[in-house]
């Protein structure tokens, strides 16, 4: 049982179980305090010298504390008595030491931890009374997440709350380790919950935890210091290092890059024209600096594509950069992914040394840490294969055992500030199954488990307002218990940039556009009383458009200012007040979030990313062009013809990273053909030359973004990024769904590697008269469906 003692105000960063504190549901019912059970363990004598390595690793290396000999003796005696012979196998000693160090620092203790005195004894005493059968059971103090707190607003605040606090995991300000954990017990106080909307939280980009991957210790740390919009230049370097580290550690966990002790006799399939290196079963990434003095050898590189000051195409990693030659390169998959500067790519080729380096005056220093002399002739290029969410979190991918831990992962990391997967994941999944399962009379109707996605809502266009009215009228005709729980409206909310004298008008005109939307919303009070409206801004919306003139603004960007949205907020307040007077429950709200932002449903178990960007046109403008190659590869004897039809596809555990690309592309299909099982990949679609251009564009866009694991894989000159908030742009681990609103791409809803990607497109269907289009997302199946209506 994991030990999670860190409180919400604890500023100490860690990747241990306490790093991801579960947000305990505060129950409404009261119960009698549980009695202390007699320990059923066999105490042992634990020598301090045996405990010293573990204590040093926990106190000194992790928490920067120094233990005295007397303190080590006290800890050894305590662990030997309370944890018994299972102190090492079950990891009990590490949990006790980690909690002791955290509490010591939280209590204001010094760097040196003495054994004499009452400070250390008090901490150990709090753990002693929370030991049951040799197991430490505890929970953290409830956080301020209102989605996980369900208290009675009419309760008497003067009553004794000692046992209520104990049910939440704390008694008299101390953690109660006797309380049952969320991950294994039924959550009290949730029997009267009827819908998933009560567990829905919108996490803005500026509220999301700022995490950085520690490559040395292989875990995530919290960002130190206060973030700034005008950060120092070192933070820019750190931003690119984080991108490389995340992709690199993800790539090394791929089976194709893990060396096996047993070498198979069957040769692997390789990319046509690729080097001998790609025929091996285990691949190895070579640092660029290691190419020096190894002319004529073949290597596989992982690095960031970029343009040098002299205009040459280069690839860069943390050790240096080198010019690359792609004249004979073959992309993988062909016409299945975009390759642009700013992306992290895997390239396979041969290093050719040169005596003199061309353009050394422009390209910077030569040698290690700078530009390596010579050129790297590329044979094949592909993107790093994406990783399923279950693999990133260390969860089992089996549908029948979704809560099992299958191996290494970051299940204890709290990526959204809603609790980690290992801490609250199982309990939230059980609650989700109870609320959303079919045939349950207490579960919500299928109508409430829907999210409506509207894109490119140009309020300065009268046809857009008519389309919005049509969508609202479509769902307002349904009964109250079938009204969609969430409606997402994504910008741009004006066709032209505001306050740029380019046709978009000034602040007064912009205020009138949102007032017109308020008038439309007020005509449908039933929707406003029970639906959460989420507004995501675009590049042309205020105030960012005032200086960008509608071009790419810096991301993440803040929401629409309150000065423009006051009328809409007033409409929601008025409608809810009227509903409460009539005895109905009016809890509708309008949330003006950032771009990008995330929706967390049932804590960390269901994550939806919202992002507004016309990235497909930017990818087409900056994409590299490769020479065409004749198809000369033939399937091997006895192989799967369908699997080997595309030889230039990458990454399969049996044949290496070049081949699975076709498998992943074929798995990407439309939502209409998707399986009803939300956790099962959709049926494969055969890739042939008769596929429409819109489907090809959709597949290229989805695969490019998910392989990069980043919402903005572009150079800062094309898409500026706030350095201190760049972690909010990472798609790691992969979310359950990604809403990528691109007005210049066709509307779609496809899935790849467990992530369902949707583009609702403009609400006013382009090229079609008086047709409104949107996406209806089902929370239960985690699939979206394209909808249309004539207005």
TrEMBL record:
Residues 13-27 have a biased composition (Polar residues). Its main location: nucleus. Residues 1-41, 627-693 are annotated as: Disordered. GO terms for cellular component: epsilon DNA polymerase complex. The keyword Lipid metabolism does not apply. It comes from the Eukaryota. It is found in: Nucleus. Keywords: DNA replication, DNA-binding, DNA-directed DNA polymerase, Nucleotidyltransferase, Nucleus, Transferase. Residues 642-670 have a biased composition (Basic and acidic residues). Residues 451-749 form the DNA polymerase alpha/delta/epsilon subunit B domain. Belongs to the DNA polymerase epsilon subunit B family. This is DNA polymerase epsilon subunit B. It comes from Ramalina farinacea.
